[in-house]
Every structure is written in C-alpha cells, then in structure tokens.
Model the fold of this input.
Amino acid sequence: MTEELTRRRVIVTSPDIVEVITEAVPPLKAGEALVEMSVSGMCGSDKAGVHGEHAFMKPPYYPCLLYTSRCV
Done:
C-alpha cells in the first residue's frame, strides 16, 4: 500500500491572516523532483502584502517563501 504524501502550504487569506494548510502532494510530472523543506522565511514584499500594504499582492495569495531544502 502506498502512503499518500501531504504538504503544508502557506496562504494569506485576508489582511493580517496567514494560514498553514495541509493538502495532498500532486503527482510529479517528468523533470520534477520532490523536496523536503527544512527552514523557511518570508521576503519583505510578502510581509507588506500580508499587512495589505503592497500595491500588487492582494489576498488571497500564496506568498513566495525562501527556504532551504533537500531532494527526497
């Protein structure tokens, strides 16, 4: 039996509300790799977007996270 893989994703749902959701990992396509994230952070532009202060990023959106990872 194959265990279903899940991932956690960050979404900004409204100003000042950041949620972490768990969802199934979609099937990998040719040339894609599965990576395991160990550390993450958010860039300054996304910080402004979270607070509703960015001109282009309006909730809901998935912020760009900076991270360290390894292939699994």
Q: What stands out?
A: The helical segments are 44-50.
